[in-house]
Amino acid sequence: MHRKPVVDQIHQRRRQLRLTQQDMQLRIGMTRQQYQRLEREGNPRLDTLSLVAEGLNAELMLIPREKRLAVQQLLSQADRDTSPPADENPWHGLLDEES
How far apart are alpha carbons 3 and 38 in whole angstroms? Predict the structure, then answer.
């Protein structure tokens, strides 16, 4: 059975962050079994998808089809640039605050 594209993205993002399915329980309160089912079967409810996105430091977006290629190119370019790890707070140190 082939997974849906959004589930593929969830799986890819989790692996990119080097998180296990068990780690998701700590991040979003979903049991490992529930999370496994989501990655295996797909078709999450919108509130579940939102919760998973939050746990993966990601955002849900609706992108117009005519803009999809431009967004993909932009994201691909951003991946090539040196950027902080995906799990790092992008605002840390922005105002030279004391840690």
Answer: 10
pLDDT in tens, 20-62: 999 999 999 989 999 999 999 888 899 999 999 999 999 988 8
CA distance 99 to 96: 9
**d(Cα 29, Cα 34) in Å, to the nearest integer?**
10
Amino acid letter, residue 19: L
Handedness of CA 14, 89, 54, 66 (dihedral sign): negative
b/e burial code for range 7-32 (CB count within 10 A of at least 16 → b): beebbebbeebebebeebbebbebee
